Amino acid sequence: MSLKRIAVFGGTGNLGPDIVGALEQAKFDVTVLSRSAEHPAHLPRGVTIKQVKDFTSVSELTEVLQGQDAVVAVPGPVGIPLQHHVIDAAVAAGVKYFLPSEFGSRTDNAHARKLPVFAGKLKVQDQLEKLAQEGKISYVFVNTGAFFDWGLDMGFLITDVLGQKPISLYNGGDVEFSTSTLADIGKAVVGILQKPEQFRNRFVTVNSAVVTQNQLIAAAKKVVPDAPFNTTPVDTEVVLQKSLETIKSGQGDIHGAMLGGLMSAIFNPSYGGKFPQEDSHTLGLGIDQAGVEAVVAKSIQKKQQAK
Predict the structure, then answer these.
(1) How far apart are CA 267 and CA 216, in angstroms?
(2) How far apart are CA 296 and CA 166, in angstroms?
(3) What's 276's DSSP letter?
(4) Where are the alpha helices (H) located in 195-253, listed in sequence order?
(5) By percentage, how much of the chain surpasses pLDDT 90?
(6) For 71-85, what is the mean pLDDT?
(7) 175 phi and psi, to 5 degrees?
(8) How far apart are the first and last CA of the chain?
(9) Exposure of 220 in the CB half-sphere (CA atoms within 13 A)
(10) Is the pTM higher than 0.85?
(11) Rounded to whole angstroms, how far apart are CA atoms 38 and 198?
(12) Architecture of the 147-179+209-274+287-306 domain
């Protein structure tokens, strides 16, 4: 199986530009599906933009996907259900390969699969697995762990290294978890599409590094040693139970409750947050301790410049 023409759904979001850029640099013919016909300034000029006015229209999507070999889907949470229409259109257009919007925690873990935050992803998996069994398309489910650089920038992995608020320290802060830079995720997608038979119809687990929150805090202290680095202990099981109660009631901060489940997927070892390394090694991914510290330092410097 040879893949050359790649369509990207969600190519203008947080992760999309890094994947689009990596594909373009690897000499794939890249088409980004977008609601707008304008070429986004942050995407390479060499990629094609195809406007899709209605992402629920299988007929419109089928026309746009004609001639494409593979689809990489990276929409945000709102766009997860729209993948069902894109998949139907991909099959109708003769697309060979589909990478759905996984790119996060291990959704093949039995505990993680019970979390409401992943329900939409599991429905997409079911659809693709059925179609693959029928010989209509191949897929890869790419699990990357938490986004490393983006997660630091957003205060997701360690909440506030500049000392404005206490850092939420989950389960003691020494839980090892996998994390990937956006650039490495783009590199992984390229590697998979260059050797599609090697990875087809399975989960692929990759990361840039395995770290702990306390290791990240130690790296941050090298950059801003005078920051207070106050911490607040947080038990993911307590957070999860409160989150499930909120979701069940249908009232309150549902989005926040979904994120509460995500904290378990990352920081509770039972949820498989520390990945096996075989796929990362095969795809040539990984950064050493100096690389980890460099990512932390860059994130802090960006926050300092923004103040």
Answers:
(1) 14
(2) 18
(3) P
(4) 196-199, 213-223, 236-249
(5) 89
(6) 96
(7) -75, 125
(8) 50
(9) 27
(10) yes
(11) 36
(12) Alpha-Beta Complex (3.90)
